[in-house]
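quick one, 74 residues, struct below
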Amino acid sequence: MATRIKNELEEGKGDHPFKKVLFCNIGNPQVLGQKPLTYYRQVLALCEYPQVRPDAECARKAMRQRFRRRSADP
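---
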C-alpha cells in the first residue's frame, strides 16, 4: 500500500494531502538501517530459559558480564 502511494506521488497521480511517504517497516526495522535487536533477544532468552545453554551457570555468568558491560556504556 505504501509503495503504491509512493509511486502515485512520484507520477503525480492521486489526491493525497502529503508529498512524501515515510516507510516505518515495523516488522523489519533493518530495512531502515536500524540495528537488529539480537543482544536484547539473547539476554531475554537466557533470563527466561537459562537451560538453553549447555551450562546454565555459564549462561548466568554471561548475562551478568553483558549487563555490566552495557551498564558501563555511556
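Residues 29 and 36 are 7 Å apart (CA to CA).
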